[in-house]
Amino acid sequence: MINKEYIFQFLRDLGDNNSKEWMDENKDRYNTAKERWITEVDLILKRLSKHDSYFEQFKPKDTLMRINNNSMYHPDKPIYKDYFSCSPTRKNDKFSRIHISTGISWSFLGSGLWKPEKKVLKQVRDAIDYNGDELLDIINHKKFKNFFGGLAEDSGKLKTSPRGYSNDHKHVELLRYNNLTANVKLTQEMVISDGFVDYVEEAFLTLKP
Fold it and tell me: Do residues 120 and 146 share a domain?
């Protein structure tokens, strides 16, 4: 089997030569790197399926995001991404159970609620209002704090309480979040190690609550 380091060798070269001409000339290398990542994703999905049958519905290749950047919405970005992803999520899911991006400029593992619809965000805030102590217990748990450092920073976090809640609400800090996520950076050494699937499993079990 091709070493996982091959994935990063290809992605580094792609980052240095980000053009359609180069990609056309290196199509075989791209397919080889992608297939090696798909093999890893297959192992990840099988492992996570032991803990959550949700993952059984996905084929590994269906969890990959397109390597092309969307030039219509992001005209300033390069033509191609310099990372591969694993995002086992259905179109109408309200949150992501796990997301992995691994590459040169963008490498992390995370989970949570990202850019939710207003209705979903209201449901979350209502739940925090009703029983925010339970969420605090989860994100303040020693294992969660050690692994993820708590909730991820939210650039969309409100500066004051959301409408309908007072600034002196017991859980006002949680209510101000627009995105509730947790993530951890991945290094190349972690991804190419023999224990990467074990690491992803541990991350998922820590995120699951």
Answer: yes
Among residues 44, 82, 37, 79, which one has the least CA distance to residue 61? Answer: 37
- Residue 90: CB atoms within 10 Å: 9
The reply to whether 83 and 145 lie within a common domain is no
72/88 same-domain check: yes
126 with 150, same domain?
yes
> What are the pLDDT digits (tens) for 21-70?
999 999 999 999 999 999 999 999 999 999 999 999 999 999 999 999 87
- Cα-based distances in Å from 190 to 106, 128, 194: 14, 35, 8
pLDDT, tens only, 100-136 = 999 998 899 999 999 999 999 999 999 999 999 999 9
Determine the structural domain holding residue 105 and report its residue range. 1-111+184-209
